[in-house]
Amino acid sequence: MYKTNEEQEIISIDEFKNDWWEKVEYLLVDIREEEEIASAGGVAGAYNISMYEIPDKIEMAPTWIICLLACQDGSKSEQLVKYMKNNNYNNMFAIQGGVDSLVEAFPELRS
Predict the structure, then answer these.
(1) For the whole prediction, is pTM greater than 0.90?
(2) φ, ψ for residue 11 (rounded to 5)?
(3) What count of Cα atoms within 13 Å lies in the side-chain half-sphere of residue 49?
(4) How many secondary structure helices (H) and strands (E) does the chain include?
(5) Virtual torsion, Cα 68, 57, 100, 18, nearest 10 deg
């Protein structure tokens, strides 16, 4: 299992590429609105839930697997990770640079 520091909130694209991609079990969560996904494109294999739905459904958040959150540019996912960690969900991390950086590094994830 990949070791993370509870204080760590962000996973860089290089860290994702070197330490996570096809090596560790995780859940990739796209927190963008449906309209954003429709206009900018989705991420293959990602679970989609709007960041605005999460506070009302926080009890449904998985605790048994590491969740990597991504918005379009990484800014909203970083905020959401702080919120989740403040609510004792220490298995949440943001992808630095969001979906933009992720699909640039891994074009095969664009859907």
Answers:
(1) no
(2) -110, 120
(3) 18
(4) 4, 5
(5) 0
Mean local confidence (pLDDT), 85-102: 94
**Rounded to an integer, what distance in angstroms lies between the CA atom of residue 35 and that of residue 22?**
29
15-61 per-position pLDDT tens digit: 999 988 888 899 999 999 999 999 999 999 999 999 999 989 989 99
CATH of the domain at 31: 3.40.250.10
Task: Copy the structure tokens of residue 98.
Answer: 């969001």
- Which residues, other chains included, contact 87 with Cβ-Cβ below 8 Å and sequence gap of 6+? 58
Domain residue limits at 24: 10-106
